[in-house]
Amino acid sequence: MHLGSLSKSEVKRRLVHASGASVPLGYLAGVLSWSHLTLLMVVLSGVVTVLEILRLQVGLDWAIYDELTRSYEQTNLAGYALYVYSMTGVVLVFEPHVAVPGMLMLAVGDPVSGLLGRTREAGEPKGLRTLAAMFAVCLAVSVPVLYPVAGAVGVVAAAAGSVGATVADGVKPVVWGYVVDDNASIPPAACLGIAAVLAATGAAAVV
Question: C-alpha 188: how far from its chain's center?
Answer without folding.
Answer: 9
